[in-house]
Amino acid sequence: MTMKYYIIVFLSLLMTNFFGLTKINNTILLGLMIPFVIIEFSEKSIFKWYIVAVFIGISLSIISCNYFRGQPMLMTFKASVIYYYILFYFVLKYLDIPISQMETSLMILVIIFCACYIVQYILFPTVIFSGVEEQLISPDNIRIRLVGQGLSSLGYFFGLNKYLHNNKKLHYLFLAILCFGVIFLMGFRTMLVMISIFTFLLIIRVKGFKWNVLLFSLLGCGLFIAMLQIPVFSEKMNAMLDRQQTEVLSNKDYIRLVQLKYYTQVHFKSVWEYIYGSGMTYSTEHESSAYGRLMGRLPDMGIYWQDWGILGLSWMIGMLAVISMIAYSIKAFLLKVPVAYYYIGIWFLYLVASSVTTMEFYRDGNFIVQSIALYMVEKFYNEYKLRID
After folding, report:
1. Rounded to whole angstroms, how far apart are CA atoms 359 and 306?
2. CA quadruple 34, 36, 39, 40: dihedral positive or negative?
3. Radius of gyration (Cα) for the chain, nearest Å?
4. Taking a C-beta distance cutoff of 8 angstroms, is the pair 39, 94 a contact?
5. Where would I find the H helices in 248-318?
6. Which residues fall within 8 angstroms of residue 50, CB to CB, at 6 or more apart?
7. Is residue 280 a contact partner of residue 80, using CB atoms and an 8 Å limit?
8. Its pTM surpasses 0.90
9. Cα torsion angle, 343, 381, 368, 65, sign
10. For residues 15 and 261, what is the distance between their CA atoms, to the nearest angstrom?
11. CB 202 within 8 A of CB 157
12. How far, in Å, are 65, 103, 193, 200, 212 from residue 220 at the CA level?
């Protein structure tokens, strides 16, 4: 049992390339999962067919990209590999790790991630983790993204849920505060708004609506105000408020309206390409396609499909894959689980809601985190059924 506990921490770090510290080929990492998928596929599981639908949807987008854009299927596959990482769910099913071990592993992974993020934030512009060099907006507004950063929000709801359920254990509250601090440093207004909304929802689900819920909310506001007295946090808030002055949908020049018009009126060659997706682009220093070069020119015009979050993802990998992702997220929320485990369902709703205008749902490494969450909520559900049977 203890050995499995170490295995899950190591495998999660490996599959996220140690949060970008290493550069192991994504296709190789995916290949390591395939034997476990084959072995475990015949076993009964709640999320198997949702994941199969995702797999089929992404595969159809690869074919669509070849048909409509002429990009070789192997190139599109390489560009789409990170979305297949949801198959890590089957690896966890094979290992069959107990709930207590999974939650301990999750806590360790969250703490490691937060420590890595803070270290990278402090040392920037020195780059330790891959991809960080692309995240500077201005010298006063650093927005760093790390592989697997969904751990920060999952860790926040995990810590908060556990504290609310047993408020004698303050280390869970400290974990939630640590994760919130990291999320704040990321500098996304959407994520902060959604964290506030789903924090309130989690409190109501765990505690019910009582006056002490209002008191707890006021305490949270007080902690947030106290954080803003720290220079690094106050500067981050000022930067977000400055962006709010120009990034509004009422501004006719707002670039997201330009992006939406392009992808709904110009980009697709037929309605079938719109349904199946135009495919992920593959472009490297040594290898690229005409489609990759076309998509590579769009950012010069301010057109990024990622700015439309999960809708933008459907333009690339197709409707079937994205609808299936949303479906398993809703299923995870609807599963009946003990009160101590509400955080998984709330996190999935948060992930979908915060991805209306961000990449948070499908950011690099987050499908590994989602796989962990899906496995855990299924374990929680099975425990609940045993209690009521």
Report:
1. 6
2. negative
3. 21
4. yes
5. 255-265, 271-276, 290-297, 309-317
6. 324, 327, 328, 331
7. yes
8. no
9. negative
10. 36
11. yes
12. 48, 24, 14, 10, 12
Q: Which residues contact 104 (CB under 8 A, 6 or more apart)?
A: 5
Q: Per residue, what are the HEC states of 300-317? A: HHCCCHHHHHHHHHHHHH
Say if residue 17 is exposed, middle or buried (CB neighbours under 10 Å; 0-12, 13-18, 19+): buried
**Cα–Cα distance for residue pair 86/368, rounded to 1 Å:** 6
Q: Tokens 């929802």, residue?
A: 201
Partners of 141 in beta bridges: 138
Query: Per residue in 289-320, pLDDT tens?
Result: 899 999 999 998 889 999 999 999 999 999 99
* DSSP calls for 52-119: HHHHHHHHHHHHHIIIII---HHHHHHHHGGGGGGGHHHHHHHHT--HHHHHHHHHHHHHHHHHHHHH
Q: d(Cα 324, Cα 51) in Å, to the nearest integer?
A: 7
Read off the pLDDT of residues 100-145 as tens digits, 9 standing for 90 and up: 999 999 999 999 999 999 999 988 888 899 877 555 555 556 778 8
SS3 state of residue 332:
helix
What's the CA gap between 270 and 215, in Å, rounded? 55
One-letter amino acid identity for 286?
H
